[in-house]
Task: structure prediction
Amino acid sequence: MRQQDLIQGFTACAAPWLSGAQSEDPIALGCRVMFRRNLVGHPFPLKASVAVRRRLQLNIAEAVATTEVPHGGWTLDLTTLSSLDRLALCERRLSQLSPAAPAEGCALFVNADQSLSITSNDQDHVCVQGVRPGANLWKLYCRVAELDAALAEELEYAYTPPLGYLTAQPEHVGTGLRAGVVLHLPGLLLAEQMDQVANAIDQMHLSMRSVFVNDEEACGNLYEVANRSTLGESAETIVRRLCKVTGDLITQERRARQVVMRERSLWVCDYVSRANALLRHAFRLDSSEAVNLLSAVRLGVDLGMLPRLERQQLDRLTLLSQSGHLQKHLGRELDIEERNAARAALVRELLESADHEG
Result:
């Protein structure tokens, strides 16, 4: 199968990190754990020659072949992919490599359900990643750590006490860990508690970043709560703290929704209904407007206001509203105005189809 066709197949299904339909709690859509590693005796990828990067790619591929990832999975040579294909992979969080970055020696190894992936030669020699629905970050961490340990038996990682694992970016030195949970937090926004929560998160040395950003403005009320530092603590300590904080945030979001429904129920009903109507009748939608409206509709589904819609349909629409997924789904590249019109038409079509299924 051609790589372009394979990526088009990827975009037809939900991403594991954005799977509210499969989550134990509708507020927690998914989580991600990533380890960045480099190999002893070799320059970082951005400083390495093309020949070195290609040789490292082969060495890493041999190591990956000893793990569970290749069984039923795929290998993608990012060097040969178009910028659109690479954009779609970034939107799915399967690759951290930007569409404009040099890709010589870069490969993506991904398992059958896209829950585990290994990238060679992006910022670091090796990036080991796992994603899963829901907020069970600890279970995911254990699985990704096991995969990382399996690779370490085949590759010699650059590790220097007391710093830890050496990485291309100083902020990743130490555990090399990036872990986070994606939460849908419209209740905190409507209850005007978001600034207070963000300040509290910052004081705990964690970050809370919007998953979707347009012109530096947060969109869609989807936030990833993640570790900010990797030095001076074990990976286990970081993950346990994240598990506690995200659990507390889920409780706060649930309470905020109860408060706004008790004190402003008519306003919330109007907020949800207007978003639902716009999505069903708009003829132009940019990506930020689409994810904002889908967030309001998702809230309505969670509150039981829109019984015909399911979270699985909203998961799909949220991803398809992104530029890369939209163009891959339609099988052609579009300019901005064409994308806005096509996005609106696709949303109308899928919502109408959901009505008939319901």
Q: What stands out?
A: The first strand starts at residue 28 and ends at 37. The longest helix spans residues 235-263.
